[in-house]
Each structure stands twice: as structure tokens, then as C-alpha cells.
Design a protein that fits this description.
Layout (H helix, E strand, L loop, with lengths): L44 H13 L2 H8 L3 H5 L4 H9 L33 H9 L47 H15 L19 H21 L11 H20 L4 H26 L75 H11 L7 H13 L1 H4 L2 H14 L3 H9 L5 H7 L3 H15 L14 E3 H7 L5 H10 L4 E5 L6 E6 L37 H5 L15 H14 L7 H201 L2 H16 L10 H11 L9 H18 L6 H11 L15 E13 L6 H18 L4 E8 L2 E11 L3 H4 L4 E5 L9 H12 L6 E4 L1
Parallel strand pairs: 4-6, 4-7, 7-8
Antiparallel strand pairs: 1-3, 2-3, 5-6
Helix pairs in contact: 6-7, 6-8, 7-8, 7-9, 8-9, 8-15, 9-10, 10-13, 10-15, 14-16, 17-18, 20-21, 22-25, 23-24, 24-26
Length: 1009
């Protein structure tokens, strides 16, 4: 889960000591009704079938009415403080989200620390009570089913919920710390887990027994939230939090999931709808456990570690792994078959448990890493064709040899090998073995169907073969009772059903020894086949029965509480001693922390790096020492095995020699006896030869008659066989044609579905492209409108803020001073060039002859172009004008202490007032165009900015040569260039008239004559 920000633990003065008692009131054993009748569930198949039919016939509303409690049943069970809150408010609002982008405070983010000390936060409890979301299993009955001082706060457990946009989970007041989560596990084991086997429950309608699936789904939901709370507090192993409390909770949840996989297999709804989900949750739990076990600081066996992985909780006698009792509370549970379960809170069976009050001081702190590693290997036997198990085992052998050589891991590898090699005899032998742990058998139960099918396929091919010389069948008859024992069938009926399912022939034969009928398999007449669905064509599975005789018998009366606390986990499930490298690491870290280094940052960093390096070296050395000791141990075992084999070989050779001598003596005696028998035989044969000669004629006559009858019988049998073969061939041909027809129909349906899907996809893509094109067009249209409106707005604001007098006097004067080349700026020196040209030709009448005037003006412009060095900046002139105007202030800008930027976009239209009806005029216009380009830069964007006080003025200008109305439509000001040389030249007036037609009446104009 993503770590949230601004979530810090409680202040130091509000934090509670770890040794202080929890806010949760201690759970006491309720006063039980000793006179109540014991619960004995019916074990008959008819009862189970009728119960299943009743569940199917009930609607969802009826089942929810049984599962959830009514509001009036929970109102009075609220504690006084919650009852007051419930009366004050009738609506529930989640914690408001903070307006934060989630990144600016990421450097100050800390791991979340839960502070909720109850099984269910008060906010959720009030909301669920208002929404009638309290389940029957959470209803409290003080004095009847629970202690008299209990309220609903003692029985309601936080239910699973995902984070949403309007609902946050990572609130410290809503997250339970590890100690409380362990108490929740203990409460579920002691008060809820056996409710379906404790008889009638007064909280349910008509006092009926809670359905097993309701109990399963309740615990499944609550244990998911337990794991979610650990995740919210960053319990992820390396890089996050990790301790023995989290490992124990996850191990208890994993045992519960593995146990349910077989204990609820007799319920059809569980096998069809819940089993796959149960395996998925078990896999997620096992993956989290692997992260804890692979923690870089090895904190999985540390109760409350510090940042260096060292134990901080020294006195563990005050803690009991969240267990308030060693027995199930309420009536004594009874198994589904009616057998009583052991539910005593004292006895020798408690010493076998891994979790509980008696195990708080164990070296492993109640964790069972070898057992969980073995269960994970069994759970992933089918992943990647078995490669995941091999990689996992290789990693354990390299990094954790003490775990690899433990009994659970070695047993898991043996089971994996038997399953991988399809060695069904070895697989079921391990399943039957009394030393195989119960939870291992529950996981193996998932593979029983496959291994039975493989066994029957192999046996149908291996047994029933014929001898080549006589044609007699070998091992054809196979007793069904032997198959029941070999493949661990529950009874003969299940084995017979399996044989019929896979087309194995079973007949009843009278036994010669006991003179009674017995079921016998005849492999010669059997042909293994897997049945398929008549319509859909998939292979029909054969769900095995619940294996009471093979698996459930391993419990020996243990309750679910005992299973979750490791009573039946078997030998070697825990590490009896702490690995040596862990003690070395703790000792090294402690020595480094107590050396008293200087407090300067550089020295602290150097020593921190040195400590990390030393820690890494210690880890590497510990691993090498462990590997060296493992290699030495394996070498000693190999040598010891070789010596033992040599002694055995010598002993066997001596025995073989003595046996050979004895066989030689026996052979001699047998040869002598054979020779004597041969002599007697020859004498008898001689006497019998004479008798045979006399009988020969009679025998030949009888044989001839028998051969004739046999030939007739063979011909009749051959004809019958031919007729049967022809009929069989016809049936097979008809069946093949029917299969081909069905295949063609399915293929045609698939093609039609594929064509329809492609057409839908094409239409969706086409519609998507049209929508995107329309969106781009609208965006472009609005962008153009916004740009045009922005220009108009800037210009209008500027005009409306300036007074008319400034616009008529100061603005016009300043603009003409900067735009008129004949003014005192000295930049546009066209008139001086004209005067100089007139002085060079004093006799020329430039004011009378238009043709001569044009030539003189052309030479003057060429000279001005050659002499021009710098260009006139319209952007600088406009910016200076804006900055010098004291009356100009954009609307809305009243605070002069804040820097503001004002940008003016100025587009100037240039019109040259020269008629274009003659060639000379066109050339003169082009020359004048070149002169204007050299002075003010036609078509180029000019930018200039200046800062006055707290305001920044920036102007961007461009000069555009206009020839028609469209070119001048978006310009801000017009500059008309009139080359007026005398009163005799009247054609510029024609040009000015044309300019008036082009320009809009509202556009400002400046004439350069």
C-alpha cells in the first residue's frame, strides 16, 4: 500500500507503554450452561443433501435475513458512550480529504501507526449499526452466550473494505496495532471459528445452527482486514516493518485457509464457488510470509524490534500471543460425523502447540517458518511446470540451509517429486503416513483427483497384458478392496464410482477362500476413458469425497483453534534454536551503537557506513561458515554412508558365497535324483509305447472327428466376429461424422462472433476518431476566438483608460515624433537626401517635371538605403509611451506592491500611396518597400520590455505590408507612406483615396509624407 503523508504517531505524552494493559477489557470465560444438551450433528448423507437443497431454494433476501441482525437487537448492546453518539448524529461522514497534491510534503511522510484499541473502530461500528450491517455472529448476548459485562464493542470485528475517493483507510484511529490484531485472531479462534459445530445458536432464527459457509465467509472477511491493517502500517518485510506478531497472525490465517480446504470439502457450494477463492487468499498470505521470512534484518522472530532489528520487549511473560483461553468458548464442539472433539484447557496436548501462553518464551517466538515454507512449496507445485518449487528450494539451500534441511521442507520436496513423476503409489503412501502433518494432507487433497486418474490410466495399460505364447492375461483380475487401500478411497462405493467414471470394468466374483461375492477389476476388458460433457465437450471432473479415514483421522480430536495454534503442525515445524548469524548481527549492532562516537554529522555518517559494512561482512562470514559446516556435515555423512555400504557389500558377498556352496550341494542331490527318475521314466515310457500303439488308430479317428467339428465352429465364430466388426465400424463412422458436424457448427459460430467483434471494434474506433477530430476543431475555434478577444480587450482597455486629450495631443505628438522620418530623430534622412540631390543639380526643376522628380527621388532612396545602419524599433517606442503615461493603469490592479506584467500586442499595417498603373510607379514602390524594410523591418516581430516600479511593460510589434482589405482586417494601427514632392504631383492623392477604401474607419492612422 502507498504510504500516506502527514500521519505521525501519537505524541510522547499520549503514547502508551507496551507493557501497559490494553484499553480493550479482558475477555472472560462466560458462565456456560452445564445442563444444556450436547450438540450432535447428523452425519447421514440424506441430511446433508436436504440441507444443501434448502440453501439453494432460499433467496438472497432470506439468507441475508439469517446472516444479519436486526437494528433493534444491536441498539441496546451499544456501550453508553457509543449510544450517546448514535443518538446525537444520524448521518455518517468520513474524514475529509486534505487539499494537497500529495507531493509537496512527501519528504516528511512517516509510516502509519495504528491507535485503535478495539476490534472495530467506533466510527465503523456506528455506521454499520445504522446501516443494519451487524451480522448475527457479532451480536452480543450478555449472560447467555457471552460474559455479563460484554457489549457489542467486544464482539464486532472490523470488516474488510477497500480505499475509495471519498473514504480513506489510512487513518490512525481506524487502524489496529499488532497487539490488538493478535487479540482479534484469538477472539475469532475462541468464539467464532467453531460456531457451526457447537449446536443451535440463539442469535439465529428459530435457534438454528449457523451454516458452515456463513462462519467461513465471516472469518474470511475479517482475516482479510487483519492483513490489510498490517499492510497499512507498512508491514512488508525488507524496507518496511516486520516482527514476530505479524508473522504469527499471518501463519494462523494461513493454517485456517489450508484447514478449510479439506474440512469444508463435503459442502457442494464451497467446492464450486469458494475453494478457488480460498486458495487465492492462502497464496497471498504465504507471499506476505515469504517477505517477512526474507527480511534483511531477520526480524521475523523478534517480538518488537527497533530500527536495527534488536528486541525491545524483554519481559514476554505478560503476553500470550493474543490468546485469552486455550479452549473454545461455549458448548463443546462436535465434528460433522458426530465424534466429540478435545476441548480441554489443560492437558498434554497443549505442549504441542506453537502459539499460546506456554510458548511465549520459545526461541522462535511462536513462528513456524519451516512449516510455512513447506506449505508454500505444496501450494505452488503446478506453477511454471514445477520450476517455481525448484527455484524456491535452491534459494533456501543457498540462503537458509537450516530451513532447507528441516523435515517439513524435505517432506514437501518428496511430495513434489512423487507428484511430478506421477508416482501415485508414493504419493498416496505419504498421504496415509501418520507422520505427514494434517495441513500438508489438506493441501495434497487438491491433487488427489489428478493422481487417482493418473493411477487408473497407468494401471489400465500395465495390467491385463497377454503372454505371447499362450495368450493368457497377466494380472487381469485385481480386487477392488486393494484399489481402495492403494488410492486412499473412503470406501468401496467411491472406488466403484471412480471405476465406472473412467470406464473400468468391475465384476462380482465369488471368492474361493471365503465363499462370498467380491468386486474384482478386469483390466483386459477395460479401456480407460475420460467422460466429457455431451453438449459443451469439456472433461467432467470427479470430485473426491472428504477423506475422513485418511486425513481427518490425523486430527485425533483437535479443534480448529488447536489447528490454527499449531497443535497438529508436526515435528520440525519450528526452529528450535536461533540461527547463529542472527545473534552475530545483534551483537555487532549493539557494539556499534554503544561505542560513543562523536556527534558531528560527518563522523556519524562515516561510522554509520562502517557499521553497515561491518554488518554486511558479518552476514557474509556467517553465511560462509554455515555453508562450510553444511559441506563438512554432508562430507562426513557421505563417508559414513560409503563405509556402511562397504561393510554391507562384504557381508552380502560372504552370504552369497555360502549360498552358492549350499546351492551346489542341493544341485548334486537333485541331479542324482533326476537320473534315477529318468531311468524309471524310460522304463515306463517303453511299456506305455506299446499301449499307445494300440490306441493310436482309435485316437486318430476321434481326432479327425474333433477337427471337423472345430473347423465348423471356427468358421461360424469368424463370421460372427466379422459382422460385429462391421457394425462397430458403422457406429464409429456415424459418431465421427456427428463430431465433425458439431465441430463445423462451433467453428462457424466462432467465425461469426469474431466478425461481429471486429465490426464493433471498427465502429468504435471510427466513432472515437470522429470525436477526437470534432474536439480538436472546437478547441482550435475557441483558441482563435480567445486570441482575437484578448487583442480587442487589451486595445479597448488601453483606449478607455487614456483620456481623449492625451490621445489627441500627447499620444499623437509622441507617435508622429517617432514615426515621421523628417522629424528631429535623425533616423529617417530622406529629406536631407532630397535636399542634397537638389543642390547637386540646381538647374533641375523637380517641382515641375514628375518624371525627373521620380528619378531624383529614386536616387535619394537608394542612397538612404545604403547609408542606413540601424532600424527603428516600434516596440521600444510603444513601451516607452506606456511607461511614461501616468494615467494608464489596467483595471483590477490596485496593489502596487505586487509585480505585474502588461503585454501589448501591436500589429502595424503599412500602405504605400503610389499608383500601380505604370512600370516606373511599380519599380518606385518596390524601392520604397526596400527602404521601409531597412528602417522598420517588414514582417519581423520586435520585442521590448521595461520595468517601472512594480509593473513590467512588454510590447511585441510586427509591421505588415497591406495590399487589400483582408490584409488590414486584424491590424491595430495603419502607417500610410506618401512620397509627396510638390504641388504638381497629384497622384498620391489617388493613393490616399485607395487607402481610405482599404482601411476601416475605426482604425488609427499615421501619415508619413
Amino acid at each position: 500500500e502507498k504510504q500516506r503523508q502527514n500521519l505521525s504517531p501519537l505524541p510522547e505524552d499520549e503514547e502508551e507503554s507496551e507493557d501497559a494493559p490494553s484499553k480493550q477489557p479482558a475477555r472472560k470465560t462466560p458462565p456456560l450452561n452445564a445442563s444444556a444438551a450436547p450438540f450432535v450433528p447428523s452425519a447421514s448423507r440424506q441430511h446433508q443433501k436436504s440441507a444443501s437443497n434448502n440453501n439453494k431454494s432460499q433467496s438472497l433476501a432470506e439468507r441475508n435475513a439469517i446472516r444479519f441482525a436486526k437494528p433493534d437487537m444491536t441498539n441496546m448492546a451499544l456501550p453508553p458512550d457509543l449510544r450517546a453518539k448514535a443518538e446525537e448524529s444520524t448521518s455518517y461522514s468520513p474524514v475529509p480529504q486534505q487539499n494537497s497534491s500529495g507531493r509537496e510534503d512527501l519528504s516528511r511522510a512517516q509510516a502509519l501507526v495504528g491507535t485503535c484499541q478495539y476490534y472495530c473502530p467506533d466510527e465503523e461500528l456506528l455506521r454499520r449499526q445504522r446501516e443494519s450491517d451487524i451480522q448475527q455472529l457479532e451480536v452480543v448476548l450478555p449472560g447467555k452466550l457471552h460474559p455479563t459485562d460484554w457489549t457489542i464493542r467486544n464482539t464486532a470485528v472490523k470488516r474488510f473494505r477497500r480505499s475509495a475517493a471519498d473514504y480513506k483507510l489510512d487513518v490512525p484511529e481506524w487502524v489496529r496495532p499488532p497487539d490488538v490484531l493478535e487479540q482479534v485472531c484469538g477472539y475469532l479462534e475462541e468464539w467464532v471459528m467453531e460456531r457451526d459445530r457447537q449446536g443451535p445458536d440463539p442469535r439465529f432464527p428459530q435457534g438454528q445452527t449457523p451454516p458452515s459457509l456463513d462462519v467461513y465467509q465471516f472469518i474470511w472477511d475479517r482475516t482479510r482486514m487483519i492483513r490489510k491493517d498490517f499492510t497499512l502500517q507498512n508491514y512488508v518485510g525488507t524496507g518496511g516493518q516486520c516482527d514476530a506478531r505479524a508473522v504469527r497472525c499471518h501463519e494462523r490465517i494461513a493454517r485456517w485457509h489450508a484447514m478449510c480446504e479439506h474440512q469444508l470439502s463435503h459442502i457442494q457450494d464451497f467446492t464450486t464457488m469458494q475453494s478457488q477463492q480460498n486458495i487465492q487468499e492462502l497464496g497471498q498470505t504465504m507471499k506476505t510470509l515469504n517477505q517477512f521470512y526474507d527480511d534483511s534484518l531477520h526480524r521475523s522472530t523478534v517480538e518488537v524490534p527497533d530500527k536495527n532489528g534488536k528486541e525491545t520487549r524483554q519481559d514476554l511473560s505478560k503476553f500470550s500471543h493474543g490468546c485469552s483461553s486455550d479452549a473454545v468458548q461455549g458448548q463443546a464442539p462436535v465434528d460433522f460425523d458426530g465424534s466429540e472433539l478435545i476441548n480441554a484447557d489443560s492437558g498434554s496436548h497443549l505442549s504441542q502447540r506453537i502459539i499460546g501462553k506456554h510458548a511465549v518464551n520459545s526461541p522462535s517466538h511462536g513462528t513456524a517458518e519451516p512449516e510455512m515454507r513447506g506449505l508454500y512449496m505444496l501450494l505452488t507445485m503446478n506453477n511454471e511446470g514445477g520450476m517455481e518449487v525448484l527455484k524456491y528450494a535452491a534459494k533456501l539451500f543457498q540462503d537458509r540451509p537450516e530451513i532447507y534441511h528441516s523435515k517439513p521442507v524435505q517432506l514437501a520436496l518428496e511430495i513434489f517429486k512423487a507428484k511430478k513423476e506421477y508416482n501415485y503409489a508414493r504419493f498416496f503412501s505419504i498421504l496415509r503416513a501418520p507422520t505427514t502433518p494434517y495441513l500438508f494432507c489438506c493441501i495434497m487433497f487438491k491433487h488427489v483427483e489428478l493422481m487417482r486418474k493418473v493411477a487408473l490410466r497407468i494401471m489400465s495399460k500395465a495390467f491385463g497384458a497377454r503372454k505371447k505364447d499362450t495368450g493368457e492375461a497377466i494380472y487381469d483380475a485385481y480386487p477392488l478392496s486393494r484399489l481402495v487401500e492403494l488410492l486412499c478411497f473412503e470406501d468401496a462405493d467411491e472406488a466403484l464410482n471412480a471405476c465406472q467414471h473412467y470406464n473400468i470394468t468391475v465384476k462380482q466374483v465369488r471368492s474361493s477362500s471365503r465363499d462370498e461375492m467380491a468386486d474384482v477389476i478386469f483390466w483386459k476388458s477395460s479401456e480407460f476413458q475420460e467422460p466429457t460433457h455431451p453438449e459443451k465437450g469439456y472433461v467432467l471432473p470427479l470430485q473426491p469425497k472428504k477423506m475422513l479415514r485418511t486425513i481427518e483421522s490425523k486430527l485425533s480430536g483437535a479443534t480448529r483453534l488447536a489447528v490454527c495454534r499449531g497443535e497438529v503442525s508436526g515435528e520440525g515445524a519450528t526452529l528450535q534454536t536461533m540461527p547463529q548469524y542472527q545473534a552475530t548481527i545483534n551483537k555487532t549492532c549493539q557494539s556499534i551503537l554503544t561505542m560513543g562516537f562523536p556527534s558531528t554529522p560527518q563522523v556519524v555518517d562515516d561510522h554509520a557506513r562502517a557499521a553497515a559494512l561491518l554488518k554486511q561482512k558479518q552476514l557474509e562470514k556467517a553465511r560462509q561458515d554455515q555453508e562450510r559446516r553444511e559441506v563438512e556435515r554432508l562430507e562426513k555423512e557421505r563417508k559414513r554412508g560409503e563405509e556402511e555400504r562397504a561393510r554391507n557389500e562384504a557381508k552380502k558377498a560372504k552370504e552369497r558365497e555360502m549360498e552358492r556352496q549350499r546351492m551346489i550341494e542341493i544341485k548334486k542331490k537333485e541331479d542324482e535324483a533326476a537320473r534315477q527318475a529318468q531311468r524309471e521314466k524310460e522304463e515306463a515310457e517303453r511299456r506305455a509305447a506299446e499301449e499307445r500303439t494300440r490306441e493310436e488308430v482309435k485316437r486318430r479317428a476321434l481326432e479327425e472327428e474333433a477337427r471337423r467339428k472345430a473347423e465348423i465352429e471356427r468358421q461360424r465364430a469368424k463370421e460372427e466376429a466379422r459382422i460385429r466388426a462391421e457394425e462397430e465400424r458403422r457406429r464409429e463412422e456415424a459418431a465421427r461424422k456427428e463430431r465433425e458436424r458439431q465441430q463445423r457448427i462451433l467453428e462457424e459460430k466462432r467465425r461469426q462472433e469474431e466478425a461481429r467483434r471486429r465490426e464493433i471494434l471498427r465502429l468504435e474506433l471510427e466513432a472515437k476518431r470522429k470525436r477526437e477530430a470534432e474536439e480538436r476543431r472546437k478547441a482550435k475555434e475557441w483558441e482563435d476566438k480567445v486570441n482575437a478577444a484578448r487583442k480587442v480587450l487589451v486595445w479597448k482597455r488601453w483606449r478607455h483608460r487614456a483620456s481623449r486629450s492625451i490621445e489627441m495631443t500627447q499620444g499623437s505628438s509622441s507617435s508622429l515624433n517617432r514615426l515621421d522620418p523628417t522629424f528631429s530623430s535623425g533616423r529617417l534622412d530622406l529629406r536631407q537626401a532630397l535636399k542634397k540631390a537638389c543642390q547637386e543639380e540646381p538647374h533641375t526643376e523637380i517641382y515641375k517635371q514628375s518624371k525627373d522628380s521620380l528619378s531624383i527621388l529614386r536616387r535619394a532612396i537608394e542612397a538612404a538605403i545604403q547609408k542606413s545602419t540601424t532600424q527603428l524599433s516600434l516596440a521600444q517606442m510603444a513601451t516607452s509611451e506606456l511607461a511614461s503615461s501616468s494615467n494608464f493603469m489596467p483595471s483590477g490592479e490596485t496593489d502596487i506592491s505586487i509585480d505585474t506584467r502588461l503585454t501589448l500586442l501591436l500589429k502595424v499595417a503599412v500602405l504605400i500611396a503610389v499608383p500601380d498603373d505604370t512600370t516606373d510607379s511599380s519599380k518606385f514602390a518596390e524601392l520604397l518597400h526596400c527602404w521601409l524594410d531597412s528602417q522598420i523591418g517588414l514582417g519581423k516581430v520586435s520585442r521590448y520590455s521595461t520595468k517601472t516600479g512594480s509593473r513590467i511593460f512588454e510590447t511585441r510589434s510586427v509591421v505588415h505590408l497591406c495590399r487589400d482589405v483582408d490584409d488590414c482586417s486584424d491590424c491595430d494601427v495603419a502607417l500610410v507612406v506618401v512620397p509627396k514632392l510638390g504641388s504638381t504631383l497629384d497622384y498620391p492623392n489617388l493613393g490616399l483615396k485607395r487607402a481610405n477604401k482599404i482601411l476601416d474607419d475605426s482604425m488609427p492612422r499615421v501619415v508619413l509624407a
